[in-house]
Design goal:
47% of the residues lie in helices and 17% in strands. It is α/β, with parallel strands linked by helices. The protein starts with a strand and ends with a helix.
C-alpha cells in the first residue's frame, strides 16, 4: 500500500522530494528535539495523483484520519471540540521554496460551538472570535474561491463576533451553502484547495520565472495551531542565524508581540528588532538563540526560522536554508570553511557564477521606492546615469566633453558601435538578451536594458516617450539599471562594486573580496575547462587577462574595419579591377597587423584565436534606403557607385548568404591579406622577444572542401612570411562549427582542422530556424508564457537539440583527430548552465566576454565538482 501521510517524527530533511521542503525541515527539527508543534505531512505524490485524476488517492482519507486521531490523543484535545478545541493550520510546501505562491488556511476546526470553547479555554473572547473570522476569510477565498473584495466590503467592524456573522453571510450568498461546521470536512477540503493551488496562475508564473518543474506537486503540512496573539507574553517572529544581506554573524530578525505570523508577513504592524526580545522575554530569547545555533551547526549553513511564543512557551514553526544576497553567499561560504563546518569544495558548490556577476558591477543605492519610468529586459548588469542621446555621433561628441550619456535606440546595429563605446549604458525599445545591443554591451561591460517596449523612441524628433506620456528630449538625464531591467527618470545615487574594483586593480577591500578571491582560486584548482575571452582590442585583451582569462577564444576582425577604415572597405568593394582591390587590401594590411600585434602583446604566451572576417560585406556600406534618398536629393558619383554596389550585394537573408568562408572564397586576396597581417604580427612579436600564440579560425564552414581551399591559401602565406623572416611561424588553423551540416559532418571537417570552436549563436539560429534579433521581440514572450521555452535557447543552450549537434561534432571530430582541441565562443560560453553542459561534453575551453570570465571560471570549477559527485554516486 502506498504511504501518503507521514508524521513529522517519521520524516527527515532528505525527503524533500516526497515531503516538500517545509515538511522535510519540520521533520528534521522534530528529530533534533526542537519544540515543534506536532503534525503530519500529506505527500507530493498524493498531490500529483489528485491533480491527474481530480480525486484523492483512495487510501489518503484513512491514513489522514489515523494521523488526526493520533494528534488528538497526543494533545488531549479534539479537532473542533467544544472544550479547548484542537485547531490546525494547513500549509503548502513544495520541494523548492515558492513564498506566497500557494495557499494557507489557519484555525481549521473552529465553528459556532468550538469558538465558544476556545474563548473559555484562553479566557480571551475577542481573540477566539477573531480567529474564527480569519478562518472564514481564508477558507472562503481559498477553498470556495470567493473574491477577496467581497469580504473586504464588510468593513472592519470592531465587534469580531458580528464580523463573523457578516462573513458567514458572504459565504452563503456567494456559494449558496453554509460554512461547514464539520471540522473534518473543513480539513479535507482545505487539503484539496492547497493541492489545486499548485496550478494557480501565480504559482505557474513563479515556477516559469524560477525554472521550477511543473510536475513536482506540493506537499501539505497539517500542524497544531499555536498562537502568538494571546497577550503581552505571546508573539511571533522571524530570525536569521546570520545577516542575509552581508553574511555577518549576529542577531538578525523581527519580533511582533501579541500577533500571529500572518501579521508579520502582511506587514500590517511594525515589528521590533529581534534583539528586543531579550528584554521582553529573556528565557524564550535564550532558547531561540540556542535552537538557532543547533540548526546552523546541523544544516551547516545560514538558516532562517519562523517561531511563535504562546504565553511564554517557544515553538519553532519552520526552518530552511535562508535566502541571501550574492555578497552574503560568498562571505558565509568561506566563513563556514574557517569554522570547519564545510570544506572548500562545498563552499564552491554553494555559490554561483550568476551571483558573482551581480557583484562585479556598480549598482544604485536604495531606489526600491523609486517608481521606474519603464521596464525592459535586464540584458547587461550594472547601473549607469547619463543624458539621453539618440545616435552614435552625438554620443561620441558629448562623451568627448566628459558628459555621461545613455545611447537610446529602437535597436542597435554595428554602426552604433562607436556610440556604444562612448555611452555609459545602452537602452533599446526592441530586442532581448541576445540581441545585438545585449551581446555587444555585455562584451564591453556596458550596462544595457533591451526590449523596453513601453518606451516610444522617435529618433527623428529626438524624443523618448514614457508610458505615462512623459516626453523626454535629448539631454534629459535618466538612470538605467541593467541588473533589474528598469529605467528611471533623473539621477539615482550610484555605488561602486568592490569586487569589480578588485578584479580590475587587485585592490582587496575586506571580507567580500577575500571570500571571492578564495572561491575563485579553488575553482581554478579543480576545474578542467579552460576559460578564454572574446576580445577584439588590446584593451579588452588586457582586461580579460586581469580577470583570469587563459587566452582569447574569439577575436572578431570585422570590428576592426569600422570607423575611419570603412572607406578602405568601400574602396575594396567598389574596385573595378584587381589593381584597385589590391590597393585597398594593401592599405588595410598594416592596420590589421598593428591590431593583431597589440592583442598578441596583451596576451603574450597565451593562445589568441583570430576569426577571419565573418559578416556580409554590405554591412560595411551605408544603409540602402538612406543612400537611395541621398542619391535622389544630392547625387554624387561616389554615392551612385555605392548605391550600385549596395543593390548588387543586397540579399533577402544576408546572414545565410555571402559571408564567412564564402566571402573569402569569392573575394580574391581577402583571406591572404588577413593571414599575412596575422603572420607579420607574429613575426613582430617574436622579434621583440615575445611569445605569440596566434590561431586562425575560418567561420561558417559547411563542408571540408571549403576549409581545405582556405587552409591551402593560408599555409602558403604563412610559409612566405616565415621564409622572408627566417622565423618559425606556428599558427594552427581551425574552424567554427556554427551550421548543423558542419556538426553532422564534423568527422570529415576534422581532417582539415587543428581545432573546432562552436559558434553557438549561429548554430542555435540555424538549428531552430530563428533570427535571434527578431523572435525575442515577437513570439518569445508567448512561448515563455505557454511553457514552450523555459528560457531562451539563445541564453541557455538547448541541450536536446543544439546540444545533441555539439555532442555529435565532438565525438565524430575526435574520432577522426584524437588531438582535436575544441572550445565554444558563442554567448553560451558565459552562461552558467551551459558551462556545465560543455564540461560534461568534454570541451577543452569556453570563451566569453571579459566581464563574464570570473563567473565562467567559477562555474567551470563547480561543473568539475558536480561531475566528481555524479561519478562517486554511480560508483556506489
Amino acid at each position: 500500500m502506498t504511504r501518503y501521510v507521514y508524521d513529522f517524527a517519521d520524516g527527515s530533511r532528505d525527503m524533500a522530494d516526497l515531503l516538500g521542503g517545509k515538511g522535510a525541515n519540520l521533520a528534521e527539527m522534530t528529530r533534533l528535539g526542537l519544540p515543534v508543534p506536532p503534525g503530519f505531512t500529506v505527500t507530493t505524490h498524493a498531490c500529483r495523483e489528485y491533480l491527474a485524476t481530480g480525486e484523492e488517492p483512495g487510501e489518503l482519507g484513512a491514513q489522514a484520519a489515523h494521523m488526526l486521531a493520533e494528534l488528538e490523543r497526543r494533545t488531549g484535545r479534539e479537532l473542533g471540540g467544544r472544550d479547548n478545541p484542537l485547531l490546525l493550520s494547513v500549509r503548502s510546501g513544495s520541494k523548492f521554496s515558492m513564498p506566497g505562491m500557494m495557499e494557507t488556511i489557519l484555525d481549521i476546526g473552529l465553528g459556532d460551538e468550538s469558538v465558544l470553547g476556545l474563548a473559555k479555554a484562553t479566557g480571551r473572547e475577542r481573540f477566539a472570535w477573531d480567529s474564527y473570522r480569519r478562518l472564514l476569510q481564508m477558507y472562503g477565498r481559498t477553498v470556495l474561491g470567493i473574491a477577496p473584495e467581497l469580504f473586504d466590503r464588510r468593513g472592519s467592524n470592531d465587534d469580531p463576533a458580528q464580523l463573523v456573522e457578516g462573513f458567514k453571510k458572504v459565504i452563503r450568498d456567494a456559494t449558496g451553502e453554509e460554512f461547514p461546521q464539520d471540522p473534518g470536512e473543513q480539513l479535507y477540503r482545505a487539503i484539496q484547495a492547497v493541492f489545486r493551488s499548485w496550478n494557480s496562475e501565480r504559482a505557474r508564473l513563479y515556477r516559469r520565472r524560477e525554472h521550477i518543474p511543473d510536475d513536482l506537486g506540493t506537499a501539505v503540512n497539517i500542524q497544531v495551531m499555536v498562537f502568538g496573539n494571546l497577550g503581552p507574553d505571546s508573539g511571533t517572529g522571524v530570525a536569521f542565524t546570520r545577516d542575509p544581506a552581508t553574511g555577518a554573524r549576529g542577531v538578525y530578525g523581527d519580533y511582533l508581540p501579541d500577533a500571529q505570523g500572518e501579521d508579520v508577513v502582511a506587514g500590517i504592524r511594525n515589528a521590533v528588532p529581534l534583539a528586543e526580545l531579550e528584554r521582553l522575554d529573556p528565557s524564550s530569547y535564550r532558547q531561540l538563540i540556542d535552537h538557532m545555533g543547533t540548526l546552523e551547526h546541523h544544516y551547516r549553513d545560514l538558516c532562517d526560522v519562523e517561531f511563535t511564543i504562546e504565553r511564554g512557551t517557544l515553538w519553532m514553526l519552520q526552518t530552511r536554508v535562508g535566502k541571501r544576497t550574492a555578497e552574503a553567499a560568498f562571505r558565509i561560504a568561506e566563513a563556514l570553511v574557517d569554522e570547519k563546518l564545510i570544506d572548500e569544495d562545498e563552499a564552491l558548490v554553494r555559490v554561483g557564477g550568476t551571483q558573482l556577476a551581480r557583484l562585479m558591477f556598480p549598482r544604485f543605492e536604495g531606489h526600491a521606492e523609486t517608481k521606474p519610468l519603464a521596464h525592459g529586459v535586464a540584458a547587461s548588469p550594472g547601473a549607469a546615469v547619463g543624458a539621453i542621446v539618440f545616435d552614435s555621433a552625438e554620443a561620441v561628441r558629448r562623451a568627448a566633453t566628459r558628459e555621461k550619456v545613455i545611447l537610446v535606440r529602437r535597436e542597435t546595429t554595428p554602426d552604433d558601435l562607436p556610440g556604444m563605446v562612448a555611452a555609459e549604458a545602452v537602452l533599446t525599445s526592441r530586442g532581448g538578451k541576445t540581441s545585438h545591443a545585449a551581446v555587444v554591451a555585455r562584451g564591453m561591460g556596458k550596462v544595457c536594458v533591451c526590449g523596453a517596449e513601453e518606451l516610444t523612441v522617435d529618433v527623428e524628433a529626438r524624443t523618448l516617450t514614457a508610458p505615462d506620456r512623459t516626453v523626454l528630449a535629448e539631454g534629459t538625464v535618466i538612470s538605467v539599471d541593467g541588473t533589474a531591467g528598469t529605467v528611471h527618470l533623473g539621477s539615482l545615487p550610484l555605488t561602486d562594486s568592490p569586487v569589480g574594483r578588485f578584479l580590475d586593480t587587485g585592490e582587496r577591500d575586506g571580507a567580500l573580496t577575500d571570500a571571492v578571491t578564495r572561491t575563485l582560486e579553488h575553482a581554478d584548482a579543480v576545474r578542467h575547462l579552460g576559460v578564454r575571452a572574446n576580445a577584439d582590442t588590446p584593451e579588452d585583451a588586457a582586461r580579460a587577462r586581469r580577470y583570469g582569462a587563459e587566452g582569447i577564444g574569439l577575436c572578431r576582425t570585422e570590428h576592426m574595419f569600422l570607423g575611419e577604415r570603412r572607406s578602405l572597405v568601400e574602396a575594396m568593394i567598389l574596385a573595378e579591377d584587381e589593381t584597385g582591390r589590391c590597393s585597398a587590401l594593401d592599405a588595410l594590411l598594416p592596420l590589421q597587423r598593428a591590431d593583431f600585434a597589440g592583442i598578441l602583446a596583451a596576451m603574450d604566451g597565451l593562445p589568441v584565436t583570430i576569426r577571419l572576417i565573418d559578416p556580409p560585406l554590405h554591412e560595411f556600406l551605408p544603409d540602402r534606403t538612406e543612400l537611395a534618398v541621398r542619391v535622389a536629393t544630392h547625387p554624387t558619383t561616389h554615392d551612385e557607385r555605392l548605391l550600385t554596389a549596395v543593390e548588387r550585394m543586397h540579399e533577402s537573408n544576408p546572414m545565410l548568404g555571402l559571408r564567412g568562408v564564402r566571402l573569402g572564397l569569392v573575394v580574391p586576396g581577402l583571406v591572404e591579406m588577413q593571414v599575412r597581417a596575422i603572420a607579420e604580427a607574429v613575426v613582430e612579436r617574436l622579434e621583440d622577444g615575445g611569445n605569440p600564440k596566434a590561431e586562425i579560425m575560418v567561420p561558417l564552414v559547411g563542408t571540408v572542401e571549403e576549409l581545405r581551399i582556405v587552409r591551402t591559401a593560408a599555409e602558403r602565406v604563412l610559409a612566405e612570411v616565415a621564409d622572408a623572416s627566417g622565423l618559425t611561424i606556428d599558427c594552427p588553423i581551425g574552424t567554427m562549427i556554427e551550421l548543423p551540416r558542419a556538426a553532422l559532418t564534423a568527422g570529415r571537417i576534422a581532417e582539415a582542422a587543428d581545432f573546432f570552436s562552436f559558434g553557438t549563436n549561429d548554430l542555435t539560429q540555424t538549428a531552430w530556424g530563428m533570427s535571434r534579433d527578431d523572435v525575442e521581440a515577437s513570439f518569445f514572450p508567448a512561448y515563455l508564457a505557454q511553457g514552450i521555452f523555459v528560457t531562451s535557447p539563445f541564453e541557455t543552450l538547448d541541450r536536446a537539440g543544439v546540444g545533441r549537434l555539439v555532442r555529435i561534432a565532438v565525438e565524430e571530430g575526435r574520432a577522426t583527430n584524437p588531438g582535436l582541441k575544441i572550445g565554444v565562443c558563442g554567448e553560451h560560453g558565459g552562461d552558467p548552465d551551459s558551462i556545465h553542459f560543455f564540461h560534461d561534453t568534454g570541451l577543452d575551453y569556453v570563451s566569453c566576454s571579459p566581464f563574464r570570465v570570473p563567473a565562467a571560471r567559477l562555474e567551470a570549477g563547480r561543473a568539475a565538482l558536480a561531475n566528481r559527485a555524479d561519478g562517486a554516486s554511480a560508483a556506489t
